[in-house]
Amino acid sequence: MSRVISWDEYFMGLAHLSAMRSKDPNTQVGACIVDDHNKVVSIGYNGFPRGIKDSDLPWSREGSFLETKYAYVVHAELNAILNSPRLVDGCTLYVSLFPCNECAKAIIQSGIKKVIYESDKYNLTDGNIASKKMLDGAGVVYEQLPFEVDVELNKK
Predict the structure, then answer these.
(1) Is 77 a catalytic residue?
(2) 124: left (phi > 0), else alpha (psi -120 to 50), else beta?
(3) Which of 9, 67, 77, 148 is labelled catalytic?
């Protein structure tokens, strides 16, 4: 009998699968919002706002603010919140990269109560510290998975 994956592996796998939709050449991030009955409420990935072609704006990480992706990209967490067909109050967010300070605000305001993340590669940066201060202050629990989830698509 094959091994059955855990809920954490399943939902983080969905986050990774969603990340594969991102056109960002450097950082593909995915998010999956789940309710307390282990039902998927919404998913999202980082990309430009609806209606904007991926070739219309820059994907660069360097240059002036308006010449970089940072002025334009909607993060995976915010896309998942905005894409949800219902309120996400009380839900858990699975995300492949720890939320930035702007996403932390949206997470708190939307009522998400728990964040499960995989990578914390920006740990101890000012934005990361601000995120953790806000999440702590609002009572949002965050927890890093003790393992990485690998999603492999077999194309024929």
Answers:
(1) yes
(2) left
(3) 77
Cα gap 46→133, rounded to integer Å: 23
Determine contact, residues 48/73, Cβ cutoff 8 Å.
yes
What pTM value is reported for the model?
0.93
Tokens 């809920």 locate to 7
**Per-residue model confidence (pLDDT) at position 52:** 95
Query: Which helix or strand (DSSP H or E) is residue 114 part of?
Result: strand 114-119
- Tell me if 31 sits within 8 A of 107, measured CB to CB: no
Give phi and psi for 59, each to the nearest 5: -105, 5
150's CB contacts (< 8 A; 6+ apart) are none
Q: Report residue 156 as tokens.
A: 């024929």
Question: How far is CA 65 from its chain centroid?
Answer: 22
pLDDT of 146 higher than 90: no
Asked whether 142 and 118 are in contact (CB, 8 A), the reply is no
